[in-house]
Design a protein that fits this description.
Helix content is about 40%, strand content about 15%. The chain is α/β, with parallel strands linked by helices. It has a single domain, classed as TIM Barrel, CATH 3.20.20. The strands form 2 sheets. An 8-stranded parallel barrel has the order 1-2-3-4-5-8-9-10, surrounded by 7 helices. Strand 9, helix 9 and strand 10 form a beta-alpha-beta unit. Helix 2 packs antiparallel against helix 11. The longest helix is centred in the middle third of the chain and has 17 residues. The relative contact order is 0.15. The structure holds coenzyme A and zinc ion. The site of coenzyme A has 20 residues, from helix 4 and helix 5. Belongs to the HMG-CoA lyase family. It comes from Fictibacillus marinisediminis. One of its GO terms (biological process) is L-leucine catabolic process.
């Protein structure tokens, strides 16, 4: 099996994880989770999103959240940005690491950010230019890289063309997202292989949701294709308000456990991660879908 020695994980719980929670999670609790995740050894985290409070009320406190993070110097705190206004607000808050997003599918992009794909790419290309001139780190997520909840399968060529466009913008990282968790391992292997075959200079990252229970199989397929950077969310939380029916992200603790078992390093302390699962269990109303917390039942502290 073609496997790396080490995998890098970007924890998306505080953003993708909780953006879809119906009851507003108090800012203090969001910060508590961000700080607890920071203690696990995780080196990258999406802390919040600067999006419209009308469209995504859970993220209405992005500015306060970001400003009050007791930032660890060796941890990259990313913030999601859908448009120019989001960039301005993030910059005012002091953000240095941007996670821009646009969808490969027209209908999804229109529902998600109320712009055509072309408008998104145009507006965000100006953001990239400005951000790069200020030495910011820019990652760019291609939402619905595989499937769209409204249009069905997205042609490989459509996503690959978007990758090529992002390469010309010289973004630091490109993320292929299975936003609705509908991709299969064969599709994943093909698209990531073809993306790497383009000679992509940006770091290429995989982002899976577990709607059909394929997220681990998809992660393994991406690993086989040569991908070593992944987005996951603690507790398997997650889902996009504009992708109906989509389940949570691939769960961080399950993925770390699987990698540990396979002898692949992550630098993450598994027991501290399970402490964070207890925290998200308390702060959300959702039944968590991660397997490890089910294996441990009521006693998350018990050794597996
Ligand atoms: N953050 C906060 N407020 C924003 C904003 C942002 N990024 N972008 C626009 N606004 C404000 C405007 O200032 C304006 O405020 P006003 O009414 O007080 O003047 C208002 O929102 C409407 O602006 P408009 O440009 O017409 O935005 P819109 O209503 O068309 O919404 C987005 C566009 C992109 C802001 C919205 O669709 C959005 O937030 N999408 C993100 C969805 C998401 O987070 N999905 C999950 C992650 S992929
Ligand atoms: Zn997602």
């Amino acid at each position: 099996m073609n496997l790396p020695k080490r995998v890098e994980i970007m924890e998306s719980g505080p953003r993708d994880g909780i953006q879809n929670e119906k009851t507003f999670i108090p800012t203090e609790q969001k910060l508590q989770l961000i700080h607890a995740l920071g203690e696990t050894g995780i080196k990258r985290m999406e802390a919040t999103s600067f999006v419209s409070p009308k469209h995504v009320p859970q993220m209405a406190d992005a500015d306060v959240v970001y400003r009050n993070i007791d930032q660890k110097p060796d941890l990259q705190y990313l913030v999601l940005i859908p448009n120019k206004r989001g960039f301005e607000l993030a910059r005012e808050a002091g953000a240095k690491n941007l996670a821009l997003v646009a969808g490969a599918s027209e209908t999804f992009n229109m529902k998600n950010v109320r712009m055509s794909v072309e408008e998104s790419l145009h507006q965000l290309s100006l953001v990239v230019e400005e951000a790069k001139s200020e030495d910011m780190f820019v990652r760019f997520s291609i939402a619905t890289s595989f499937h769209c909840p409204y249009e069905g399968i997205v042609a490989e060529e459509t996503t690959l063309n978007m990758v090529k466009t992002l390469e010309t913008l010289e973004v630091d990282e490109i993320v292929l997202c299975d936003t609705i968790g509908r991709a299969n391992p064969h599709q994943v292997y093909q698209l990531f292989s073809k993306t790497l075959d383009l000679g992509t200079k940006a770091k290429v990252t995989a982002h899976f949701h577990d709607t059909y229970g394929f997220s681990k199989a998809n992660s393994l397929a991406a690993l086989q294709a040569g991908i070593t950077s992944f987005d996951t969310a603690i507790g398997g939380l997650g889902g996009c308000p504009f992708a109906p029916g989509a389940a949570g992200n691939d769960s961080t603790e399950d993925f770390v456990f699987m990698l540990n078992e396979m002898g692949i390093e992550t630098g993450i302390d598994f027991e501290k991660l399970m402490d964070c699962v207890i925290l998200v269990k308390e702060m959300t109303e959702r039944r968590l879908t991660g397997h490890l917390q089910q294996v441990r039942g009521g006693s998350l502290k018990q050794r597996v």
